[in-house]
Design goal:
Blueprint: H1 3-27, H2 37-42, H3 44-55, E1 62-65, E2 69-73, E3 81-89, E4 97-101, E5 105-109, E6 116-126, E7 129-139
Antiparallel strand pairs: 1-2, 2-5, 3-4, 3-6, 6-7
Length: 140
């Protein structure tokens, strides 16, 4: 075999490699974290203030996992109202869930959630001021 055939084989393999990468990248799901991130950017200072207020609380809303449930515990000392938990799936926005919490201790059934990593956004109000907590959780 001479160097011309080797060069042709190498170029053919390179073209196959590039085409494989193009097909793979075109078929990959690329969901954005937020659909309306321009609007969210404008209100970002409000989010920062809500995070700071939540970080200054002595007690925060606790999230724990058991084998069957996710347990949400709201301490009685913070008097939180309108508690909402957003389960944001990192790799698939269709699996996102929003759950309103009505009781001081609530159970969320894990059967309603796919296994994997979620970013939790916990929003609530205390004395008509917004509070925000962010956590990551891995559901097994």
């Amino acid at each position: 075999m001479n160097w011309g055939k080797g060069l042709a084989i190498a170029m053919g393999m390179f073209i196959i490699f590039i085409m494989t990468m193009v097909v793979k990248m075109m078929s990959t799901n690329t969901d954005l974290v937020e659909d309306d991130y321009y609007k969210k950017d404008v209100a970002y200072q409000n989010e920062i203030n809500a995070l700071k207020r939540a970080n200054h609380l002595e007690e925060k809303i606790n999230i724990k996992q058991t084998e069957q449930h996710i347990v949400v515990e709201i301490p009685s000392s913070i008097h939180a109202e309108n508690v909402t938990i957003k389960f944001r799936r990192i790799n698939n926005a269709k699996q996102d869930k929003i759950i309103n919490i009505e009781e001081m201790t609530s159970l969320i059934n894990k059967d309603n959630l796919e296994k994997g990593r979620y970013n939790l956004v916990i929003e609530y109000e205390i004395d008509n001021q917004q509070y925000l907590q962010k956590e990551s959780i891995y559901i097994q």
